[in-house]
């Protein structure tokens, strides 16, 4: 017997990805970026708010956090926060 496992991408994360990318400006391919960072975003989304807080992020910041290597604006935000925590 096998069990089917369905993992649904939480709609809030899609909205948060769109918001984060819109704040950066035009010329981006959100679909490609969603696919690239989806696994890490889903993993982080399974953590409790407390655990996310221990990482220095809020749930709505997950997209920016996972894309911090791609966009210097995100990297600077999280580098500053971790250095001053």
Number of helices: 5
Mean pLDDT: 77
Report the radius of gyration as a whole number of Å.
14 Å
Classify the beta-strand content into a percent band.
under 5%
**SSE order, one letter for each helix or strand:** HHHHH
Total DSSP E strands = 0
Q: pLDDT below 50 for ≥5 consecutive residues: which ranges?
A: none
Largest sheet: none
Note the gap between the termini.
Answer: 49 Å
Report the principal-axis shape.
globular
Q: Which percent range fits the helix content?
A: 55-70%
- Helix/strand structural class: mainly alpha
Describe this structure in words.
The model has no long low-confidence stretch (mean pLDDT 77). The protein is globular. The chain has five helices and no strands. α1 packs across α2. The protein has 85 residues and is mostly helical.
Produce the secondary structure layout.
Layout: H1 11-24, H2 30-45, H3 49-55, H4 62-66, H5 72-83
Helix pairs in contact: 1-2
For this entry, give a set of tags.
85 residues; single chain
Task: Report a brief summary of the structure.
This protein is mainly alpha-helical and 85 residues long. The chain has helices at 11-24, 30-45, 49-55, 62-66, 72-83.
């Amino acid at each position: 017997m096998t069990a089917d496992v369905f993992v649904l991408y939480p709609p809030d994360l899609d909205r948060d990805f769109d918001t984060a990318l819109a704040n950066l400006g035009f010329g981006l391919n959100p679909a490609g970026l969603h696919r690239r960072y989806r696994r890490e975003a889903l993993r982080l989304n399974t953590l409790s708010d407390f655990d996310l807080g221990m990482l220095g992020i809020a749930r709505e910041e997950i997209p920016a956090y996972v894309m911090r290597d791609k966009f210097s604006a995100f990297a600077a935000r999280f580098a500053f926060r971790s250095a001053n925590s």
